[in-house]
């Protein structure tokens, strides 16, 4: 199999943009208000409140809802992966369908098989991210069970603060892994365009990055979440880490 130069460029562009944006989002969150930044602060607030409540039934229910959502995506990923593998075994039929679509680029069977194989790797990556997120949310359940009790005098305010921050950090890591799994889905949608044309593949990859950036740094929900702390979108101020 010999990929055309434009196909190689499109694939390299796809991988580079995905990796670069992931690193960019992680670094930028340290200096600019984003969904990940405000959610980290709210998770700390949540765990602080947890250590000062007599009952954690509602908190356990909230955590269970999030964990079920991640489990749903993990299960769905297995089904999607099974479908992609099935298509891999019937690549000739996929070629027939692609040839019926106008303006479709080269649809040789070996190239379609290669693209399906790469697509399956994307969903394998997403599956690992989702399952690791589920495990980490399980760790949070243990932490919630071991949280300092409301009436306990064995813990100082400083110890409660340390517990709240470390527990929130575990939730934050679980949330990041969940986000990485969802991001794989977004990029997988862009990858599908490669079956049509490499130029469309490049364009769709750029669109996905723009959508992710806007939702992370410019969305209305970000403004609403920041408003709960009296913050505005933009560079993090001195008060940004005061919680």
How are the secondary structure elements laid out?
Layout: H1 5-28, H2 35-50, H3 57-89, H4 91-99, H5 109-145, H6 157-192, H7 198-217, H8 220-227
Q: What features would you describe in this structure?
A:
- This protein has a domain at 1-13 and 56-205.
- Helix 2 (35-50) packs antiparallel against helix 6.
- The chain has helices at 5-28, 35-50, 57-89, 91-99, 109-145, 157-192, 198-217, 220-227.
- The model has no long low-confidence stretch (mean pLDDT 90).
- The N and C termini lie far apart (56 Å).
- The chain contains 8 helices and no strands.
- It has 243 residues and is mainly α.
- The longest helix has 37 residues, at 109-145.
Unreliable runs: none
Structural class: mainly alpha
Mean pLDDT: 90
Radius of gyration: 22 Å
State the share of residues found in helices, binned by percent: over 70%
Strand/helix succession: HHHHHHHH
Shape: elongated
According to DSSP, the number of beta strands is 0
Percentage of residues in DSSP E strands: under 5%
Multimerization status = single chain
Helical segment tally? 8
Describe the main β-sheet briefly: none
N-to-C terminal Cα separation, in Å? Answer: 56 Å
């Amino acid at each position: 199999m010999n990929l055309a130069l434009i196909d190689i460029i499109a694939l390299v562009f796809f991988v580079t943009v995905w990796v670069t944006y992931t690193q960019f989002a992680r670094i930028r969150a340290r200096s600019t208000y984003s969904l990940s930044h405000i959610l980290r602060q709210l998770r700390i607030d949540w765990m602080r409140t947890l250590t000062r409540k007599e009952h954690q039934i509602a908190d356990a229910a909230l955590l269970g809802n999030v964990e079920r959502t991640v489990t749903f995506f993990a299960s769905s990923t297995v089904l999607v992966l099974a479908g992609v593998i099935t298509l891999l075994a019937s690549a000739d039929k996929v070629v027939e369908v692609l040839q019926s679509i106008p303006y479709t680029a080269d649809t040789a069977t070996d190239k379609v098989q290669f693209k399906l194989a790469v697509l399956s790797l994307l969903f394998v990556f997403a599956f690992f991210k989702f399952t690791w997120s589920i495990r980490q949310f399980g760790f949070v359940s243990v932490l919630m069970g071991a949280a300092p009790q409301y009436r306990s005098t064995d813990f100082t305010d400083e110890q409660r603060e340390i517990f709240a921050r470390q527990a929130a950090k575990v939730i934050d890591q679980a949330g990041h892994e969940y986000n990485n799994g969802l991001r794989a889905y977004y990029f997988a949608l862009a990858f599908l365009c490669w079956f049509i044309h490499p130029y469309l593949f490049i364009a769709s990859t750029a669109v996905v990055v723009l959508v992710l950036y806007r939702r992370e740094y410019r969305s209305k929900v970000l403004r609403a979440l920041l408003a709960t702390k009296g913050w505005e979108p933009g560079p993090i101020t001195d008060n940004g880490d005061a919680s």
